[in-house]
């Protein structure tokens, strides 16, 4: 298997990005909608009986002209003075304490878009009010799982190109199995932000981010700057460790930092997105954000730091009535459990080489469409190269040849059991709104109170490199994306 990265170009089917646009040059002329104010002089031979209506008509015309003129003048003055008053806020703000830009990238795992409305979240809302927000959420990459998305955020690459195509998968050439505890460089392709930053002679620190423990290139996961994952570390300790970096001399402060929290994903899997435990988890991470903000304010650097708050995916409720069993397909084809690399929410099947994936897909879909398989209509099976191109999920040998897309909230299992459960899941099609998460950015290079359209998280890599004024590695993000999000430099 080659570790090279190919075809790193944005796809035409990507969501619209908030880059500046100009009005069409050939826009229709709106002057045809204005009233015709041309008047004709009255003939001296007009009878006296017509003079009074004529005077009234002319008066109405003059009144209309005056009103329109006043309206246009007011509109012009309003726009002019509004532009003038905002001119000082439309460029990036100068640093007051720090000497160079700093980006702090924070992840609330499994923070579905809309969770910020579940409870009073004053600190998240403070960043939204005084920063820039993706108004309808951040779009994850497919599959909407933790490791593929976290690594896409920091590499700007789709999973097919950065290599982490699932949380668990098998290398088809070597038979080696990848788990979330694996830190061998061979699995982790691309160039993550911490590596890009140190390549430019700057410092980076990571507090629990998938891939950050991998020693690759110029990144050696230095002690005190790269924390080894330990889920038992209290959230407060994580925040306080990051704050201590700002107590260092200016040239020792990392230019790029990450900070990770398992909540509210942890609760979401157990109880789904609508349980009171989720509300408590949202309040908890908001409290940690408040602890961070206060610490930055005490050090007089809050307004200098570019904080980017994101999640990796959303969450949807699942329950027993929404199950699909592969054993129900035995009248059409048998799918042994040894063929299945993952069941839900992404069905991934790798049959032996003496079986035809095309024939397997055809027989599975025949059974699913027959009406004789419970919930069969909620699963569609594809050859990976025939998946919708917008998913960008085919250009890797690590992706199994057969992929099943499962409808929102449904799950695939091998066989029926007596186990009863209701919980939450993610990993589904990234076009689903329930899979969206948050993007909120606050700092000197982000406008205050600004709303931008939703975008895919592969754009964040270029956003960070632009803020730090460094050249990034080739990626799937859009080169011009930062121009539509960041304030221009002074």
UniProtKB/TrEMBL annotation:
Q: Where is this region: Disordered?
A: 1-35
UniProt entry keywords in alphabetical sequence: Membrane, Transmembrane, Transmembrane helix
Annotated membrane-spanning segments are 55-81
List the GO terms this entry assigns under cellular component, sorted alphabetically. vacuole
Entry's Gene Ontology molecular function annotations: hydrolase activity
Membrane among keywords: yes
InterPro entries per UniProt:
Alkaline_phosphatase_core_sf (IPR017850), Phosphodiest/P_Trfase (IPR002591)
PANTHER family linked? BIS(5'-ADENOSYL)-TRIPHOSPHATASE, ECTONUCLEOTIDE PYROPHOSPHATASE/PHOSPHODIESTERASE
**Protein name, entry field:** Uncharacterized protein
- Species of provenance: Buddleja alternifolia
């Amino acid at each position: 298997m080659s570790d090279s990265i190919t075809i790193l170009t944005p796809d035409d089917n990507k969501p619209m990005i908030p880059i500046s646009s100009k009005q069409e040059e050939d826009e229709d002329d709106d002057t045809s909608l204005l009233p015709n104010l041309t008047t004709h002089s009255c003939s001296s031979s007009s009878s006296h009986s017509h003079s009074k209506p004529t005077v009234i008509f002319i008066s109405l015309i003059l009144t209309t002209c005056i009103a329109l003129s006043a309206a246009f003048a007011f509109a012009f003055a309003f726009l002019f003075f509004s532009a003038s008053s905002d001119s000082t806020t439309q460029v990036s703000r100068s640093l007051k304490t720090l000497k160079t830009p700093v980006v702090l990238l924070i992840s609330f795992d499994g923070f579905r878009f809309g969770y910020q409305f579940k409870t009073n979240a004053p600190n998240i809302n403070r960043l939204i009010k005084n920063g820039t927000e993706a108004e309808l959420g951040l779009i994850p990459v497919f599959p909407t799982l933790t490791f593929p998305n976290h690594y896409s955020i920091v590499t700007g690459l789709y999973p097919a190109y950065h290599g982490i195509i699932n949380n668990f998968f098998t290398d088809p050439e070597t038979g080696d199995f990848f788990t979330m505890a694996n830190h061998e460089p061979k699995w982790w392709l691309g160039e993550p932000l911490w590596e890009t930053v140190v390549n430019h002679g700057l410092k980076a620190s990571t507090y629990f981010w998938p891939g950050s423990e991998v020693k690759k290139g110029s990144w050696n996961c230095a002690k005190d700057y790269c924390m080894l994952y330990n889920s038992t570390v209290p959230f407060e300790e994580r925040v306080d460790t990051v704050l201590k970096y700002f107590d260092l001399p200016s040239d020792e402060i990392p230019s790029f930092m990450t900070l990770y929290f398992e909540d509210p994903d942890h609760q979401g899997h157990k109880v789904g997105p609508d349980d009171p435990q989720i509300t408590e988890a949202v309040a908890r991470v908001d409290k940690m954000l408040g602890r961070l903000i206060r610490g930055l304010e005490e050090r007089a650097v809050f307004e200098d730091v570019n904080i980017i708050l994101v999640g990796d995916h959303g969450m949807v409720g699942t329950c027993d009535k929404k199950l699909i069993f592969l054993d129900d397909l035995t009248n059409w084809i048998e799918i042994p459990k040894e063929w299945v690399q993952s069941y839900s929410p992404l069905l991934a099947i790798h049959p032996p080489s003496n079986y035809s994936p095309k024939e397997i897909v055809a027989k599975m879909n025949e059974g699913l469409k027959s009406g004789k398989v419970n919930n069969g209509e909620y699963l569609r099976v594809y050859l990976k190269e025939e998946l919708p191109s917008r998913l960008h999920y085919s250009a890797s040998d690590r992706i199994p040849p057969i992929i099943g897309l499962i409808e929102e909230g449904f799950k695939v299992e091998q066989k029926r059991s007596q186990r009863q459960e209701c919980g939450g899941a993610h990993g589904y099609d990234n076009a689903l709104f329930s899979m969206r998460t948050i993007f909120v950015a606050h700092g000197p290079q982000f406008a205050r109170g600004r709303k931008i359209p939703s975008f895919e998280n592969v754009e964040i890599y270029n956003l960070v490199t632009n803020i730090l004024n460094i050249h990034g590695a080739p990626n799937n993000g859009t080169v011009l994306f930062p121009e539509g999000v960041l304030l221009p430099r002074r």
